[in-house]
Amino acid sequence: MLDCHQPYYIHFMKTKLTLLLSIIICLSCNKTETNVSQAHEKSEYQEQLMREGWTSQNTPNTELNEDYGIKPVYGLQDNYFDITMGDGYNVAIKIVNAQTDECIRYVVVPENSTTTLTQIPQGRYYLKLAYGRDWMELHTDSTVIGKFTRNAFYERSRQIYDFGKKNSLEEVNYDLRINVKDEVGMNNFETTPISEEEFLR
Description:
Elements: H1 6-40, H2 44-51, E1 55-56, E2 80-85, E3 90-97, E4 103-109, E5 113-117, E6 124-139, E7 144-157, E8 161-162, E9 173-178, E10 180-181, E11 184-185, E12 191-194, H3 196-200
Parallel strand pairs: 2-9
Antiparallel strand pairs: 1-6, 2-5, 3-4, 3-6, 6-7, 6-8, 7-12, 10-11
């Protein structure tokens, strides 16, 4: 037997479903607009940097090259750093020769990602680390300067990473696990604070 109320019921359910989907889409759009608006809000510090010629960029997810004033040095063996960055912050890491204080490699690792920095030359190194959000760059005649411009802080590893002596056949690797809690580095290695100036030089 045909239910005479069935077409009305189907129409009612379709209307209800359409209304529910409309509400979900509106809420989603509103959330997206809020996130976009927050992403474009600049702090007073960032506004000042922009007046000085700095520009906002996506956080690099790569090793930085000669454009950033670094002359990368590569070894023949597969010595490497495995670097895992946790939630909430990005990190820029400079690998610095402990004898000469020269940076031999420079890499940026975004939050919630892992990278492997291979072909580290034999020798002894320490790390300089910059944590933060909102990457900005200044292009000069000779180089590009990049840095985080929101919640930025800087550290240096206390540990010296030994990748062996020249002509050693042993392959060496280190596992770096980096996390930030309440704007403090919570890493699997010890660090000491440094200034932005010390990190950039």
